[in-house]
Amino acid sequence: MTPRTQYDSSQAAQRLRVPIALFRWARHAGAIAPPDAGPRQWTRSAVEAMDAEAIRASMPREPIYGSTAADRIAEQLGTPNQPDARLSVTTFLVRRLIDLELLTDLSGNSDYELLNPDQVDEVCRRSDLPDLVHAHAGLGSDQAAERLGVRRRDFDRIHKDLKWVEPVEWREVRLFAGRAGRVDVPLFRAADIDAVPAQHPEVDWPAVRATAKGRPSPLTALAKATLKAAT
User: Fold this and answer.
1) pLDDT digits (tens, 9 = 90+) for 132-145
2) Tens digit of pLDDT for each residue in 98-124?
3) Whether 33 contacts 46, CB under 8 Å
4) 4 neighbors 48 (Cβ within 8 angstroms)
5) What is the pTM of this model?
6) DSSP-assigned states of every residue in 163-229
């Protein structure tokens, strides 16, 4: 068998007999040399020169899942997540903190997050944590409509017809048993929803919010005009 001459992260971690999450953290923390055989590849000699114990020492505590990080943030805010109840902090927020580079995802998997607990503790100690959670919380369409103070029908116009706000991500939700019961739902960032009225002062927002059920709101004509112009 021809000896391997180049290693990616998984292969290097396997050769060094360290968990891949620890290897990724050591790479992030600068505890190992940068790749020398391409953007994500190390030569055999570079891997052989790595110190497995130094990699383990770079993150002495076991990594935690994104859901655990969300629970810790919620606890820090004094609004602990409760089983079988609407969570005050979700993994949507954790993924936004990863986007902001305040947390580092070590999982390499889009289905879940693995994090350094020390880094999560640093986030929990931030003085602006409440502001971060308020701005980057995830909202479904009903929640977004409620936050804007408009009917769900009008929020659909804002999102689908006028395209004034776009979801940050889509997540699969199970409505009932079976594959047919799974649907992808949009999730919006709270700060993006909050910004809509200021970004569109041409709209009479008090009138939109006061529109009675079954009546056309000021957004109706605007959405129709936008759709007509697009065809």
Assistant:
1) 999 999 999 999 99
2) 999 999 999 988 889 999 999 999 999
3) yes
4) no
5) 0.87
6) -----SEEEEEESSSSGGGEEEEEEEEHHHHHHHHHH-TTS-HHHHHHPPTTSPPHHHHHHHHHHHH
Given 136, 159, 179, the domain boundary residue is 136
**Contact residues for 200 (Cβ-Cβ < 8 A; gap 6+):** 164
Confidence of residue 181 (pLDDT cuts 50, 70, 90): low
At residue 190's C-alpha, the angle toward residues 93 and 221, to 5°, is 145
Tell me which amino acid residue 107 is.
S
Q: How many C-beta atoms lie closer than 10 Å to residue 56's C-beta? A: 17
Q: What is the residue range of 177's domain?
A: 138-230
Helix (H, G, I), strand (E, B) or coil at 41: coil
Residue 1 located in a structural domain: no
